[in-house]
Amino acid sequence: MGITIKTPAEQDAMRAAGRAAASVLEHLQSFVKPGVTTGAINDHAHQYVSEVLGCIPAPLGYGGTADRPPFPKSLCTSVNHVVCHGIPSDKPLKKGDIVNVDVTVIKDGFHGDTSFMFMVGEPGVLAKRLVNTAREAMWAGIRVVRPGARLGDIGHAVQQVIERAGYSVVRDYCGHGIGRVFHEDPQILHYGKPGTGMELQEGMTFTIEPMVNAGRFETRLLPDGWTVVTKDHSLSAQWEHTVLVTKDGVEVLTLRSDETP
Ligand code: MF3
Ligand code: CO
Ligand code: CO
């Protein structure tokens, strides 16, 4: 579907959806620790989203096609070499794991989409550096956003942070427009050339969600139809925010209380 420019009322609805999604990650902060299963994280978040927030967990039942079943859980948990779309399971997290928890909620018909890297126990220096680089890359992309900037400017800024650190940018998955629809146009690539691509306009809402591999950028899809892993089994990290293009810059709709822009 095409690009949607959000009216002021729709922007308010996106703010509320973004705040709701961010609050789920805040709620999970003390819950994620060694020994907890990703399935328990899912169940804990599902209960919070539906019963406390009164929202719908967007991943649950999403995206079924001829080639894959609908997503079976309420959020994605991507551990270590899983790039994205990991399915919560009964496997416990162990010390040293890094896990991306990706939350999308629907509030009053609008989506908020955001993810966070949890470091379980005390991860190694390499894992920490990868996680921090992925976060810096996301913020470098966010800082570029304003009316008149181009999609290639975002991609370039993200890519530079990642490649200067010696890591690679996943090409097979990208950010996306978001609103009443979970994945709208435009696609937000996390690599690119400055001054190329569509111009940003006030009222656009989209995600920036770079996936960063410690090794090569190629990915492989597991037979479950969802789980994406690094082809070379290297570690992968990702952070995601939903942003709004404002009159003179950017507003991060999924900002958490532990973050400063
Ligand atoms: N939240 C993911 C994103 O950032 C999409 C997950 S789709 C699912 O776009 F079906 F796997 F949940
Ligand atoms: Co997204
Ligand atoms: Co997401």
Ordered list of secondary-structure elements with their pairings:
Layout: H1 8-28, H2 38-52, E1 56-57, E2 76-79, E3 82-84, E4 98-107, E5 110-119, H3 125-144, H4 151-164, E6 168-169, E7 175-177, E8 184-188, E9 205-208, E10 211-213, E11 219-221, E12 228-230, E13 236-238, E14 241-245, E15 250-252
Helix pairs in contact: 1-2, 3-4
What does this structure look like?
With 261 residues, the chain is α+β, with helices and mostly antiparallel strands. The protein has a single domain (8-252), classed as Creatine Amidinohydrolase (Alpha-Beta Complex). The protein is 27% helix and 24% strand. The chain has helices spanning 8-28, 38-52, 125-144, 151-164, and strands at 56-57, 76-79, 82-84, 98-107, 110-119, 168-169, 175-177, 184-188, 205-208, 211-213, 219-221, 228-230, 236-238, 241-245, 250-252. Strands 1, 2, 4 and 5 form a 4-stranded antiparallel sheet that branches. One cobalt (II) ion is lined by residues 113, 176, 207, 209, 240. One cobalt (II) ion binds at residues 113, 176, 207, 209, 240.
